[in-house]
Amino acid sequence: MVPRPPLPPNPAAAKSCCRQILPPPLPPPPPSAAALRHAARHRPARRCYWLSGAVRRKCPGFRAGMPLGAAMEGEAALPVAVMALPVAEWQARTARLWAALETAVKERMATASLHDAVRLGCDLLRSEEEAALRRLCHRARTDKEPEAASWYREQGNREFKRGQYQAALRLYSKAASHELPGSPEVSVCFANRSAALLHLGHFEVCLEDIARAESHGYPDRLLPKVLLRKAECLLCLERLQEAQDILKVLESKIALDGVMTTHLTRLKKLSQLKVKLGEKERCPEPAQEARGGIQGEPEVWEENSRISGASSSLSLRFDAERGRHLVASQDIVPGQSLVKEEAFVSVLCPGDSLPVQDGDTAWDTRATNADLYCHRCLRQLLASVPCQGCSYAKYCSQDCADMAWQQYHRTECSLGALLLTLGVFCHVALRTVLLAGFAEVSRLVEWSHHGDKNLQNAEARCKPLSDAGAGSRGIPGCGSNGQYQSSYQALFHLLPHTEQHSPEHKFLCTLSVVAICKQLQAAGLEAAVLNQESPQWSKPKTYEKTSDELSPELKTVAEAMLRHMLQLQCNAQAITVMQELGPGDGAVVDKKPVRLATAFFPVLSLLNHSCCPNTSVSFSGTAATVRASQPISSGQEVLHCYGPHWCRMKVAERQQLLSQYFFECRCRVCLEELESGVKSMVSIRNSFCCPKCQAQMQGEENTLCCSNEACATSASRDHLSGRLQELQQQIKKALELLRVGKADKAIKMLLKCQMDAGTFLSPEHLLMGEMEDHLAQVYATLGEWQEAARHLKKSIEIVEMHHGPSSVEAGHELFKLAQILFNGFAVSEALSTIQRAEGILSVHFGPQSAQIQELQEMKACLSELPRNILQRT
Ligand SMILES: [Zn+2]
Ligand SMILES: [Zn+2]
Ligand SMILES: [Zn+2]
Ligand SMILES: [Zn+2]
Question: Which strand (E) or helix (H) includes residue 817?
Fold first, then answer.
């Protein structure tokens, strides 16, 4: 550590001395009733949002080819976009087919242009392969199954009776997605779901579901039940007149039907509601405090005239070494927005599923990404609107459903199982073509044949462009006016690296793309793909024949799709969100980052990679925002980390992961580590220590020696790595104990792990920090805020050492600390921690982000506290 220079005299301190001669301050005014109510309501019921350990090792905006949690010592890093490729069985099948091909055919494939590859693929995809693919599709069913619907509904009823409304809500949504549109059953699903929504306090959404039930022909005899619910909802929303109207309708209806015993409870409820209504009318409650009234300052944003979605403080450059890239054209300050771009295309990843309830069942009750997020806009789903044709696509609103249908889903709907089997990259490739429209696709494919040389070797055409003169004219992807837009043309010009992909990979992509186009043709969807008609609700005929030759138009589509598949390996951007784990009913809500979707962002793709980037990327729905994470001076390149960050991995691991992008990273830290032999920070900090004297252990080979010469202890690396793995297992077990509510045992186990770790891990090891973080989480769960804060502060020290004090990781940790201090009533410390967290997180996520909003609400709540409480802390 560098010794700090002595502090300059502090003017504020001098001022506070003067203050002593002033008369003592007046006693604080008695707290107002409103302030006390407010304090009681907001404190200490606030939940802590816990980002689990892995988030601290993750780049916020990484490319789709990267593993989610970057590798720690001993953990293997997955090199390719495993999740995005077709299922393993299909990959194995095409690999066998490839191996059996004659050498001449292999050579043809290896050197084929995209145009020729598609033609070759059409010949090589045999009916056996197509049959195998159809069998694989049976495992990923996306059609509607009415038996599944009634089963899900029963499960939902069961959860509802147990008071598990969140689980019931999800199960009713699953049921609704399997019911046939317009059937009385689907209306019952919506009505049941509205009951769960009412219990969860989502009154507006509850009303929407009731309207949905009514519009789908809800049975008349059950109507009173729903009308009562509607009245209750309106009452809660203070819409008294409407509530009264509903109650009148209800009364006349019951009078008409005659009183039956089943109606008695309802009548009782009705009279209760009427009493409530009367009360509300007599003494209306004060208007609700305006929620979300705390707004961050609006961001300054001036769009670039040449690059849509980019800030005016950037300019587009092109050279042989770096290709297209963005450079600061003026000095940029941290937190400044540099790119704001809506994805040209994005496809939801099916993802892992979350358990909704335990037990083995015929149908899966777990919630996947498809159950949790809108198929089109990626917004979180509460009461989803199911697609009318399949059980897979679920939307946040009817508008989203209609838009998706219009733009692409009418073509994709019946292909759901095939697209799930062939993976997200195939799906993105198809949707890209559908969004672009056939006219544009065929224009650019045609053009690429003539300008093939230019396009294929965009790297080679390295005529230096002068910025002032030609502007961005002549840079691939720019229009004739020199504009670079987030458009299909820009996307089409992203490099496919046709020659650099392995021929096997090219073969796999080609066969997959051809298989999709063949099914489009067989299912009678060709006209829809070519935008020649817009079919309304008629289920496309199922296909039998698949051997038909592809039409020339579909071959053009296949060629564009193949280009996009190959481009995706280098350009696919992962859209991530923080997902809440578990039921979320405790004091601490566990969150983890999940890969939500894979997308093309043509402007974001202009940013080159660096292992020590100067920007940070965040997402909101399908929009990405790039912000400067540090000062960038005019003329400097703007860089983005694709995943391998120097704080998380050693240079060898980084380079291995980056090889999928066909370049060797020459960033500052890579050069330092590779050429000057500077040891990576990761290996220095995450090192083993001597069991005898705790000094650092050194050595590249299997035998490690104590760096303290006097000690001269040695140990085998394998042995120490084994102990590390064992330790990680123990920590996992402790977290499992916490999950099942055995907090005391979890603490004991974690403390034992800490003791053990101290004998062989350096005190700065990331795992040491993670254990502190876990301990803090357990204490927070128990409501022992002081103890939680003590452990979290230790974790923060280690995080700051690894990632830097202004890193997003440090920001997340400070956010947690702020919540703990808030709940623990440590007011002044909470306020200063909120300030620090706000400063860091707004640089990375902007002033409008959910986390900043949460921090500001906490701050507002604390500053409204009666002053005598404030002074006690
Ligand atoms: Zn939506
Ligand atoms: Zn559908
Ligand atoms: Zn690098
Ligand atoms: Zn030693």
Answer: helix 808-823
